[in-house]
């Protein structure tokens, strides 16, 4: 009885975690550059039940065991194996703001296993650690440095902050920042051959799983990207699909909940009625 109780409970926990993930996707549907998370659910290893057959009293003489009879497989529940971002390109929306920059994938890197990669802007956080983002909703701070809305410096190809004299600047398709007709810097566009290896840190930031810096996308003839100033890459969250998946997860949670309640009533009856002394 308890095996089924635990199986239904793991179903509730996995669907709760999936619902939390989908809710977060919905909340960030309008966040520039946000990449929707995807959950992979997997069953725990199944157990093969067998019945030992004996002609005598079990446990007294092991020589009396005549063989085994298969009862069948028992599933022990389900769990969320992993949550990975979906790095598909989001729609590009024109904003007209000079500090808004969209990073557009053209030919993305691919590793030996055929897994697609993606490109990132490079930023530096408050701990002087290099991080990566797809959110090009930049701004200028009081000293003229190009930063994210959270105040993180946008890096150039030398991993140095980009400082400008004013708001009258241009960024071409390869990320070169021009001011007064002169080249000031070039955005450091990094790439990864396996987007699934990137770890989310919140506020649209990513890091590598081994904390090593990503290689530059420049000088690689096998990949291609474009920078579009005055535009933003929108979130790639499909609101309709996410809402459908959220309702399905909620129904699955309710179904498992009813099973747990049925087991609870059965155990209550066994404890209070069947086991009662008369």
TrEMBL record:
Pfam families hit by this protein:
Flg_bb_rod, Flg_bbr_C, LlgE_F_G_D1
Q: Where is the Flagellar basal body rod protein N-terminal domain?
A: 5-35
Q: Which UniProt keywords apply?
A: Bacterial flagellum, Cell projection, Cilium, Flagellum
Q: Which residues form the signal peptide?
A: none
Q: What is its main location?
A: other
At the top level of its lineage, which domain of life is listed?
Answer: Bacteria
The family assignment reads: Belongs to the flagella basal body rod proteins family.
Designated name of the protein: Flagellar hook-basal body protein
Q: Which organism is it from?
A: Bacillus songklensis
Taxon lineage: Bacteria, Bacillati, Bacillota, Bacilli, Bacillales
């Amino acid at each position: 009885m308890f095996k089924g109780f635990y199986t239904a409970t793991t179903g509730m926990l996995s669907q709760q975690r999936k619902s939390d993930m989908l809710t977060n996707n919905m909340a960030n549907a309008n966040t520039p550059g946000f990449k929707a998370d995807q959950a992979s659910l997997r069953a725990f290893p199944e157990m093969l039940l067998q019945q030992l057959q004996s002609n005598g009293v079990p446990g007294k003489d092991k020589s009396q065991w005549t063989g085994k009879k298969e009862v069948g497989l028992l599933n022990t529940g389900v769990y969320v194996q992993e949550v990975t971002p979906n790095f598909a390109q989001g729609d590009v929306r024109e904003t007209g703001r000079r500090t808004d920059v969209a990073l557009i994938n053209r030919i993305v890197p691919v590793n030996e296993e055929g897994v697609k990669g993606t490109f990132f802007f490079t930023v530096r956080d408050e701990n002087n650690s290099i991080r990566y983002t797809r959110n090009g909703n930049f701004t200028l701070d009081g000293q003229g440095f190009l930063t994210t809305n959270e105040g993180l410096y946008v890096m150039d190809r030398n991993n140095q902050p980009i400082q400008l004299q004013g708001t009258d600047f241009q960024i071409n398709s390869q990320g070169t920042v021009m001011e007064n007709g002169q080249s000031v810097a070039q955005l450091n566009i990094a790439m990864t051959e396996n987007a699934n290896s990137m770890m989310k840190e919140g506020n649209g930031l990513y890091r590598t799983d081994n904390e090593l810096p990503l290689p530059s996308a420049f000088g690689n003839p096998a990949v291609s990207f474009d920078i579009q100033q005055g535009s933003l890459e929108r979130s790639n969250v499909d609101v309709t699909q996410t809402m459908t998946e959220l309702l399905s997860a909620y129904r699955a949670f309710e179904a498992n909940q009813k099973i747990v309640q049925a087991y609870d009533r059965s155990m209550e009856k066994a404890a209070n009625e069947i086991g009662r002394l008369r």
